[in-house]
C-alpha cells in the first residue's frame, strides 16, 4: 500500500484559501496561547477532517487545569500546607489526615504525587463515562449524552468522541501519568 503524501505544515498553510488560512491562523494562535503541543497539527486535523480538535483540546485542557492540577500545587489560603484537597469540598477530615501524614514524616511531594494520580484517575473515569454516551446499567432506550461543539449559543453539530484517547496528551508534561 502506497503512503499518502502529507505536505509539511508551512506548505499546507500556504496552500489554503485566504478565508481558511485566516481561520487556521486564528486556531493556531489560540492553541499556542494555551500551550498545545502541536497547534498546527490540531488546526490541520480540524480543517481537513472536519473534526472538532480545538474544542476537544479546550475541553480536555480545562479538565486538566481545573480538575487535576489547579488545587494540587498551590498553598491553601491561611495554611502552610500544600492544598492537596479542598476542605470545602472534601471536608476538614482530609486536611487533618494530611497534617497527620506530614507530622509522621511523609514526604509532601509523595503525597502530592498520590493526590494528583488519584485526581487523574477520577478525571479519566469521568471522561470515559462522557465518551460512552450512556449509562451501561440503563435500558437501551434511556437517554444518553454527548459533548458537542458550540460557537456562541449555536451548536455546530460536530461531536467530540474518543476524549479518553487524548486526555493525557493535552500537555507534554503528562509522561508520568501515561505509564
Chain-wise SSE layout:
Elements: H1 9-15, H2 18-33, H3 39-49, H4 53-69, H5 87-90, H6 92-103, H7 108-132, E1 147-151, E2 154-160
Antiparallel strand pairs: 1-2
Helix pairs in contact: 2-3, 4-7
Mean pLDDT: 78
* Main sheet specs: 2 strands, antiparallel
The ordered H/E elements are HHHHHHHEE
* Discrete helix count: 7
What fraction strand? 5-15%
Strand order of the largest sheet: 1-2
| Alpha-carbon distance between the two ends | 33 Å
From the alpha-carbon coordinates, what is the Rg to the nearest angstrom? 21 Å
Helix/sheet category: mainly alpha
Short recap of the structure:
With 179 residues, the protein is mostly helical.
Report on this structure.
The chain is mainly alpha-helical and 179 residues long. The protein has a domain at 16-50. It has 7 helices and 2 strands. The chain has helices at residues 9-15, 18-33, 39-49, 53-69, 87-90, 92-103, 108-132; strands spanning 147-151, 154-160. Strands 1-2 form a two-stranded antiparallel ribbon. Helix 2 packs across helix 3 and helix 4 packs antiparallel against helix 7. The chain starts with 8 loop residues before the first helix and ends in a 19-residue tail after the last strand.
Amino acid at each position: 500500500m502506497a503512503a499518502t503524501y502529507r505536505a509539511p505544515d508551512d506548505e499546507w498553510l500556504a496552500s489554503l484559501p485566504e478565508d481558511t488560512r485566516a481561520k487556521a491562523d486564528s486556531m493556531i494562535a489560540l492553541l499556542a496561547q494555551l500551550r498545545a503541543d502541536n497547534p498546527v497539527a490540531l488546526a490541520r486535523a480540524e480543517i481537513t477532517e472536519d473534526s472538532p480538535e480545538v474544542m476537544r483540546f479546550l475541553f480536555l485542557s480545562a479538565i486538566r487545569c481545573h480538575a487535576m492540577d489547579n488545587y494540587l500545587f498551590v498553598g491553601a489560603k491561611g495554611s502552610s500546607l500544600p492544598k492537596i484537597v479542598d476542605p470545602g469540598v472534601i471536608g476538614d477530615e482530609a486536611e487533618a489526615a494530611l497534617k497527620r501524614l506530614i507530622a509522621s514524616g511523609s514526604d509532601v511531594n509523595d503525597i502530592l504525587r498520590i493526590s494528583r494520580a488519584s485526581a487523574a484517575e477520577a478525571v479519566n473515569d469521568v471522561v470515559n463515562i462522557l465518551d460512552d454516551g450512556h449509562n451501561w446499567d440503563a435500558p437501551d432506550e434511556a437517554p444518553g449524552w454527548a459533548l458537542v461543539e458550540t460557537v456562541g449559543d449555536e451548536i455546530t453539530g460536530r461531536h467530540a468522541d474518543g476524549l479518553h484517547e487524548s486526555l493525557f496528551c493535552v500537555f507534554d508534561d503528562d509522561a508520568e501519568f501515561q505509564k
